Amino acid sequence: MDFNATKLFIAVVNAGSFSAASERISVPIATLSRKINELEQELKVQLLERSRQGVKPTYKGQQFFEQARLGVELLEDAHKSVTATHSLQGKLRLSIPPNFSLWWDLLIEFQQRYPDITVFCHSSERVVDLFGDSIDVALRFGDLHSDDVIAKLLMNLETVFVASPKLLADRGTPETLTEMAQLPVAAWESLNYGFFEWASGAEKVKYTPFFSTNHLQAIIHYALNGKAVAQLLDFSARPWLESGELIQLLPGIATQKIPLHLVYSRQKHPSALVRAYIDFCTEWIGKLA
User: Residues in domain HTH lysR-type (predicted)?
Assistant: First the structure.
């Protein structure tokens, strides 16, 4: 069986179309089509259903894809391990939440340690399909509700309430969540999700944001300019708190804790690059503790 043709077939299934696969792996569409036709003739079975919308594997094609993919990945890992001279080499495809600036520092240090690893980093609110989008590892906030991934808890992030000295001078400093809800609030909201409630112990307070957005810098901008109270991740607020441009509100009230996970697909054998990245993240986060 043609090993290279099998690799091309896997690439086409992952991409969902010949054109997308061609662009992703820099192989002409005509070559992809010809090699997969030859593979189908060799196996005496149709592997792909072709349409104007793209391609999808047949029942037999899906069986072949799932079994062949693991073998191909293992062979490629074995090849890299014996041909690499001093360091890991290859491309790592990652997904992180938007506006998560902490991770840019981590990735810079990761590539300093592994200079032969190139990184593609996708940043979006959308929860990516690790398998369909060919993402090796994703970083996700909050509780996970999927059995299709392997998750490693890295840390629990904390949030803080902040406001500018100007806003507090004009409106007063709140001493409870209820009082804070009377102030203008800048809050996070996406097109499909917005949850406007604070809780501390038995106290729960609903509020209506004066301004809401899915852009962290806009929320910080409103807070710095004295226009609104904001709830930020601790590390995002820290520079402004240290400079005095923002003041932490209700420091005695328990802040929200948000779990941060690294996730990767159960259906995909973790490569040497993925293992190196996960180990590095664990080490790097451990130094912050």
Answer: 1-58
- Does the global pTM surpass 0.85? no
Mean pLDDT of 164-172: 96
| The pLDDT of residue 85 is above 60 | no
Q: Which residues pair with 243 in a beta bridge?
A: none
Which single residue is written with the structure tokens 């949850």? 195
Residue-range definition of the domain harbouring residue 38:
3-83
Q: What is the CATH number of the domain that holds 121?
A: 3.40.190.10
What's the CA gap between 22 and 12, in Å, rounded?
Answer: 8
Summarize pLDDT for 175-230 with one digit per residue, the tens.
999 999 999 999 998 887 778 998 877 788 999 999 999 899 999 999 999 999 99
Which one is predicted more confidently, 6 or 125?
6
Domain count, the chain: 3
- Specify the CATH number for the domain of residue 63: 1.10.10.10
Tell me how far apart the alpha carbons of residues 21 and 24 are, in angstroms, rounded to a whole number: 5
Q: Alpha helix (H) ranges present in 16-160?
A: 18-25, 29-43, 59-83, 102-113
Q: Evaluate whether 87 touches 58 at the Cβ level (below 8 Å).
A: no
